Structures are given as structure tokens and as C-alpha cells.
Amino acid sequence: MADYDYDVLVIGAGPGGYVAAIRAAQLGLKTACAEGRGTLGGTCLNVGCIPSKAMLHASEYFEAAAGGMMAKMGVMVEPRLDLDAMHSQRKDAVKGLTGGIEMLFRKNKVDWLKGYAKFTAADTVEVDGKSYRAKNIVVATGSSVTPLPGVDVDNDKGVIVDSTGALELAKVPGHMVVIGGGVIGLELGSVWRRLGAKVTCVEFLDQILPGMDGDVRKEANKIFKKQGIEFKLKTKVTKAEVKGKKAVLTLEPAAGGEAETLEADVVLVSIGRRPNTDGLALDKAGLTTNQRGQIETDHDFRTSVPGIWAIGDVVPGPMLAHKAEDEGIACAENIAGLTGIVNHDVIPSVVYTWPEIAGVGLTQEQAVEKAGGDKTAVKVGKFPMLGNSRAKTNHEPDGFVKVIADAKTDRVLGVWCIASVAGTMIAQAAQAMEFGATSEDIAYTCHAHPTHSEAIKEAAMAVTGKPIHI
Ligand code: FAD
Ligand code: NAI
Predict the structure, then answer these.
(1) Residue 87 designated active-site
(2) Ligand nearest to the CA of 251
(3) Which cofactor does the UniProt annotation name (predicted)?
């Protein structure tokens, strides 16, 4: 240790980096974390998961009041939107949580090196003009918005924005065009639709939410359409011009064809995110990236250079905060000589729309493909939320649960839910899969009544037999 400044130096304080740093310190390692942003917590706490959920939650209340749901339940109110107050509770949430990470760093004696880090050698980085040598360096620099050529984001002007700009709009746009029918487009499109915007979603593919189960994608499309979002599928945006306070978009069929124009007050570019490695001087450390710009690692999160590790959005896999966190813990444990493992086959994902959309494990399409295209190798049980007493009582009829199991062994391969609280429901499916459960195991587990989770039990019952309530 003598000539090292730190046992572990983490670059980036997002959910991957800050969690890795805290766990390393908890395990008795002298730890620092470099972060160039003014506050800790990375994309997730500053401009991602947390502020988006603050706006989603608040706009859900507004729509419940303005859209007549409260009146349906006998609560009569005359809602008025105070957007400044809504933004201010969003900022409070971010401030509270990012400040909390600073406190956790102090408590665990993690040094925050303020500034952007770059490698000067495989075991040395420079931060704000100072050099630090560390026995282990963890790259956790996260990701940022993928740009769309011809559509230049300018969050300050507020006409063509990315997710960060879309969280902060000073007024509700008359017409918002969302480019990309993925997670960000649907979540932030939902926020502004609930607050009064007309929302059009332009998606390159023939269906929204790529990567999710086919039935879920179709049903989600129907639900969002019913809520008023207009979809232009199989369509690409080739150009955007800002004219005064409006943008004029040129659209074309994805396969080519006649162009059309579309006017918008706000355009949200949400076509994906790409790993952050620019400015790290990876070459000085002998590190390279793959074709997608990611840093490859082995199962233990070691890169090709001894002593350098990588986790989170900057490595392959889903770009999710909980995946980054789990990798952070496992990576720190591996550095400490323990056995840190992440089961990448069981990473839940949730879209926080209304209703929520959640899944874990394989889609039906993936399960069939894995069985060499044999459709009979996979059994599926489905249960509609309409048959669930709690969802029905709460006026939440949309959605279903789908359990996918191996036809021979009955082992659960994937679970997909569309339900108001799907994000909470999916945890039990992940746990069941982590324990190697069969659909029968879930079907014979006693679930509290009346809960939305009973729909998972009934979908499991439907895999080999019949559910009761439909
Ligand atoms: P990041 O959180 O991106 O953090 C990396 C940090 O590294 C940044 O703070 C950056 O400033 C810093 N950094 C970069 N380069 C350097 C350098 N050279 N030196 C020092 N510091 C550096 N995921 C979910 O699971 N659930 C959600 O609900 C969810 N909502 C989202 C909503 C939005 C609008 C967005 C954009 C993302 C959302 N995500 C969500 C994704 C989630 O934010 C990311 O998967 C997660 O933050 C990745 O964590 P990370 O630690 O890998 O990187
Ligand atoms: P995404 O990958 O979820 O969706 C991008 C969409 O844009 C896809 O449907 C894609 O087909 C489409 N697209 C790509 N190029 C296009 C083009 N030129 N024209 C029209 N459509 C195009 O990416 P998104 O929504 O930007 O989110 C980035 C990542 O952030 C997500 O992958 C997710 O990992 C993370 N995230 C997670 C959240 C959550 O967990 N709830 C919330 C928000 C973001």
C-alpha cells in the first residue's frame, strides 16, 4: 500500500460508482470516488430515475384530479396546475437524495475527489490537476444521450430537448413530439400529456418498447393510444428546424418514401443512451472499447487490464440503476477478495407509466428462440388485471400478468406485468426466479388478499391449469 494513495479509486459517483465506493470502504479498503458533477448520485439521482419519478408521481395526482378519477371515487376537487411548485418538489427530492450520498461518503470515509478523472497510467488518474495512484480503479462513468443527426438538442432554448431538458420545461407544451418510443419517451411523454400536452411519439420500429415481451408491447401501445398519445410507428425523423418558438420536423417512413412535416412546441430526443468514455484517456491505461463504445469485462467486472474494473452503464447490459448498483457491490466484494456475483439473467426492468410495465427474465419470443424455435417447449399462463379484485376495486382494469415457464421442468423463465403497481409486483417474480421457482411454486404460494400480486399467482396457476377468477 505504501506508494498507493488508495486501495480503490472509483471514477463516477452514479448508482454504480457510489455504491461500489461505499461497499469498498465498508470492507476496510481505503477508497476515493472522483465525480465531476457538482453533486453525487450520477444520472439517476440528478437527472434520471429520481427527478423523472418526482414528475411522474406529481402528474399522476394531477391527472387523477383533472381527469375525473377522483370524482369517480367521490372526491370532488377543482385542480389548478402550479408547475413551479411541481418543479420545486422535484428539485427538493434531488437535493435530499444527492445530499444523502454525500453524508454516506462522510460516514463511510470515502474521499470525494471533485473533478473529472483521466488516466495517466494503468494505476494512476489525474483529477483537477492532481495525480492519484490506486491499486484498483473502477470505471463507473455511466452514459449520456445518443444524439440524432439533424436534430440538435438545446436544453436552454427548450424547444429541442433531451430527457434533462424535458424534466425542466417552464410551461406545458401545446404539442410535444417524442422521438423514440422507448422508456424515456413514454415516461416523460406521459408526464406532459397528463399535464395537458398533445403528445405524438415517432418510433423507427414497428412497435414501441423494444426488448420487451411482444404481448406487452402490443397491449402497452393500445393503452397509451387510449390515453391520447398518438403513435407514428415505422417512421424516422430526418431533420428538425427551430423556427422561433417552434420546431418543424421532417419525417419519412423508416423504409423510405414520401416525407411529411410536423410542427411541435417541444421535441424530446430519446433514442437511447451511449457509454461515457470520452475524456478518460483510456489509451493511457491500455484500455479499449467495443463497437458500441462499451468497456468489456469478465464475469467479475475485471477489464482486460489488471487492476482496472468497470461497472454500470459503461459496460454491456441493460442501462438500469439497480443493475449498476448490484454490479458496484459485487465488484467491490471481488476487489476485497470475496465472491461478488450478479445474476444478469434476473434483472427486472420497469417503465413507470400508468399503468406500470415490468418484466424479468426472458420474453416469450426469447424463450422460444432459446428452445431452437420450438413453441411447445414453452408454457405460458396469462391473467388479466380485470379479474383481480383489488385492481377492479381501484378502477385499474388495464393490463395483465404473463408467466412463461419451461414446458418440461416448469421452471419460470420470465414474468411480465402491466398493472398500476407492476414495478412492485415484479420483485416477487425476480426473487422466485432467483430461487429457481417453478410456476407451481408460485401458484401454491399464499398471496395476501386483496392485492394486485394475486394476479401473479393466478397467472402462474394458468400455466398448467386454470386460474379461479376468470
Ligand atoms: P451514471 O448514473 O450515469 O453516473 C456516472 C457518473 O460519472 C456521472 O455523475 C458523471 O458525471 C460521472 N463521470 C463521467 N465521467 C467522469 C470522469 N471522467 N470523471 C469523474 N466523473 C465522471 N434506471 C432505472 O433503473 N430506473 C429508472 O427509473 C430510471 N430512470 C431514468 C430516467 C432518465 C430520464 C434517465 C436518463 C435514466 C434513467 N435510468 C433509470 C437509467 C439510470 O439513470 C442509469 O442506468 C444509471 O444512472 C447508471 O448508473 P452508472 O453509475 O453506471 O452511471
Ligand atoms: P430506449 O432504448 O429505451 O428507446 C429508444 C427508442 O428509440 C427505441 O424504441 C428505438 O427503436 C427508437 N429509435 C432509435 N432511433 C430512432 C430514430 N432515429 N427515430 C425514431 N425512433 C428511434 O432509449 P431511451 O428511452 O432514450 O432510454 C435510454 C435508457 O435509459 C433506456 O434504455 C433505459 O435503460 C434507461 N431508462 C430507464 C428507465 C427505467 O428503468 N424506468 C427510465 C428511463 C430511462
Answers:
(1) no
(2) 2
(3) FAD
Inform me whether the pLDDT recorded for 130 exceeds 70. Answer: yes
Report the side by side order of strands in the sheet with 412-419.
Answer: 349-351, 356-361, 412-419, 400-406, 378-384
Task: For residue 20, give the nearest of 110, 99, 128, 121 by alpha carbon.
Answer: 110
| Residue with cell string 492532481 | 130
Residue 177, number of CB atoms within 10 A of its CB = 28
Which amino acid residue places its CA nearest to atom 43 of ligand 1?
A: 44
Q: Is the CB of 312 under 6 A from ligand 1?
A: yes
Among all bound ligands, the one having the nearest atom to the CA of 253 is: 2
pLDDT of residue 385: 98
Considering 57, 395, 449, 469, which one is annotated as catalytic? 449
pLDDT single digits (tens) 229-250: 999 999 999 999 999 999 999 9
- Residue 55 CB neighbours (<10 A): 25
- Cell readout for 59 is 402528474
pTM for the structure as a whole: 0.98
Band (pLDDT 50/70/90 cuts) for residue 272 is very high
CB of 221 shorter than 6 A to ligand 2? no
**DSSP letter, residue 315:** S
Judge contact between 434 and 343, C-beta under 8 A. Answer: yes
The residue assigned the cell 479499449 is 288
Q: What is the rounded average pLDDT of the residues 11-29?
A: 98
Residue 394 in this model has a pLDDT that exceeds 70: yes
Q: What is the DSSP string of 75-92?
A: --------HHHHHHHHHH
C-alpha cell at 239: 431533420
> Could you give the CA distance from residue 161 to residue 189 in angstroms, rounded to a whole number?
12
pLDDT tens profile 189-206: 999 999 999 999 999 999
Tell me the CA distances in angstroms from 59 to 62, 79, 184, 464, one per residue in order.
5, 12, 15, 40
